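Input for the complex:
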Amino acid sequence: MFLHDIGIIPRGDKKSEPNPDASKITNLTRRGFVVGSSLFVVGVTLAGCSRYEEPKIDPDSLDLPAAGPSPLTEVKGGDATPALWIAIEEDGTVKITCHRSEMGQQVWTSMAQIVADELDADWENVEIVQAVGHERYGDQNTDGSRSVRYNFHRLRLAGAAMKQMLEEAAAIYWKMDPSECEAELGKVGNSQNSDTLSYGNLAKVAAKLQVPEEKDIAVKDPKDWRYINKEIASLTIPKITRGEGTFGIDVDIPEMVYAVIARPPQLFGKTGAVRDEKALAVPGVLQTVKLPDATPPALFKALGGVAVIGSDTWAAIQGRNALEIDWVDGPNASYDSETFADQMVQTAKRSGTVRRKRGDVAAGLSSADSRVEAEYYAPHLSQSPMEPPAATARWDGDKLECWACVQDPQATRQTLSDLLEIDKENITVNATWLGGAFGRKSKPDFVVEAAIIAKEVGRPVKVTWTREDEVRHGYYHSVSAQRMEAGLDANGKCTSYLHRTVFPPIASTFAPGMDVPTDGEMGLGATDVPFSMPNLQVESGNAKGHLRIGWLRSVSNIYHAFAVQSFAAEMAHAAGRDQKDYLLELIGNARNIDPADEGATYPNYDASIEEYPIETARLSNVVNVASEMAKWGRSMPSGHGLGIAVHRSFLSYIATVVEVAVSPEGALTIPGVWLAVDAGTVINPRHTRAQMEGGTIYGLSNALFGEITAKNGAVVQDNFPSWRVLRMGEAPRAFEVQIVPSNTAPAGVGEPATPPAAPALTNAIFNATGHRIRKLPIIGASGSRLSLPTEETA
Amino acid sequence: MTITLNINGKDETVDAAAGTPLLWVLRDHLKMTGTKFGCGIAQCGACTVHVDDSPTRACITPHDTLEGSKITTIEGVTGGAADAIRSAWIKNDVPQCGYCQSGQIMAATALLDENSNPSDEDIDAAMSGNICRCATYMSIRRAIKEAAGDL
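Predicted:
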């Protein structure tokens, strides 16, 4: 009927039958992981044997030991109880619940790889069930590049525990010792004869058995992995090539009507007089709904304005165009991003709050043989996933059900409960596929809008954001100004380093007036700087937010890596040294760094610094690997240059070398990119490579073209011509990725390729042209080439 | 107003307001959601369909100009080029989120239908109207060349 296919996806290219219950997993009891009913007998021909007919097991005929509660509810990472994650049907289908949101990072596939490997399931039989938002799954916030890191251990346990229970079920049926039974690829065999029992046949018995304790569960030795760390094809892509699969904007439920919203141009602007006669005269427009004005803090509230309800999306859009609304200025009416940029640059010139300190920077700078100084500026950015935000809401009395492309269905449910003041138990949030997200869809304001409007209209409503809505009313990547100062000794070696960073914090979206960069943001590339000079100081300066500030792929790492890695190259230039050699010297000897030793409050991506230390050896290694890949130091044609940057973020280490070619007229192309990544244990190398390409090009796009500005409190850009993103012809011609083999704990891959992209690019432009870029974007929305300095200044 | 449109070889009766773009007729009226909304102004290519075999932006094409035309969407595109493109897309795991990929596949299929051995420049020209924010451009280029080789 509706959403029939968001939960289940078949193997290979076969089509699945609609399954109306695909997302209804709430009926599964904690131990009742058996669903499905059809009688099924497996006939298997074993090589060299006569035909073996697998007997159909009747669980009631067996004398099963009593089982107590699951001992796996609170292992590292959360609940590993097999029934929460795995349902085996009688036909052998293995349904694996994915509680993270699929947005192109192939999390359906990676989560399934982990479970299926330890379960020793036949990959051909694996299907995914998308979880609703619920606390029982633990963290569902699909951001921070942490789906694998948070769930690797417990999903391995869940799969391995399930496998042991299937083996035990077979042992009971065969009246053998469990040690004589061994599972492999969806069947259990034994050491006494050639009989096998399929998982589908054993599942009902296994369901009644005691879940083992963590200490009694044997996970595989990595050398025995069948799916983990293997190039397994995506579970979603065959459907995508047929236009199947349901994104948030594709949801269709009976009686549904369509809404678009005219929102106040300024954050916290108010809706004055509304004249909707012309809107109501548009064919297909059904009604208008005035939303309550938004008040600080922004949180994930609806922004206010007027919704137009139509019998299709086009009618609603046309109706909105015909609305006449008197907007009333709010507290951000005077915000002008250009003026504000000047203020931030001034703030960066003044002493700030010390966030990390080693030695005495002031003394070091004043006694240095030479000084290097630079200021960097990076603008607001929009996440702009190809699917704009969209949400559908349906009320049934006091019960609310929503379908939406959200990165965190659990937080969405909590937000709806808080803002609409309804009991959480009365809210169901279904996560659809996400047509990209990049942080935008971790903010469920659009679901709140749908819920408010559906209640008012008395029918199910789908709210669609147009591209203009998405560009003008986002949660923007923060604007930033940074000042760097360095002191070099007589040999050009850096002895003192000062980094001062100024930006409106994301916290300003959640607490009115909050203008102090947080420890979390400072730890994204500023306080965790891995350099070894004797005097080092990291400072922050305050800045207020005037737009909604939010997360964007890799967050503060973008501007911090831009400044730090550009400045490393500027120091190298001042010292007359090779960029790559100087970068390795700045990083220094192999050691582990804890910024807390030097006064920083450092969250380390919510991971322990013992399990995930900052290892300079891994940084230096990726620098060397990427340099070798790019043949660093090779002679370049005129107008060509190589640039390098290295950055640790989301616990992964990435070095990127970019080659640019700049024509005498300033036309810029990117002949190649070479990237080395050390992300610890990697679940799927081919999808990791895809994230490295995608994350890098996302960063290149932002650096070359991306800029959101505001005048009179309102965002100026509105769609892809004025908010420009990188296209096919502008993409690198060659892109090589090398994954450093590692058996350490898994780290992030979705975001960490983005931060080094911009400084690798600007360092390459410097080496090609002698032109140093300190202000982004490089080309901008309407430009077609670099504006190169005249010969005197270059 | 009621008109008949030929979509994927089948006649469909549609009752939508005059001037409604084909995109919204497909998505909201016919529930064919494989064709995507990305920008509404023919800048991103997510809505690409074929009208009489030519790649066309459904978001700016009024449906009532298409009576008598042959409309093909991602759900119905078939033939040598489409099969080769789909198979290369799957083999190379081209899509990430997949949202723009209906449009990418329709544009790439139209390219190969016209030109069975496209150069890098041909690919740039045919595909630069299709934005992918996941930046699958490298994979798209690889897969188009592979599909061309399979034709």
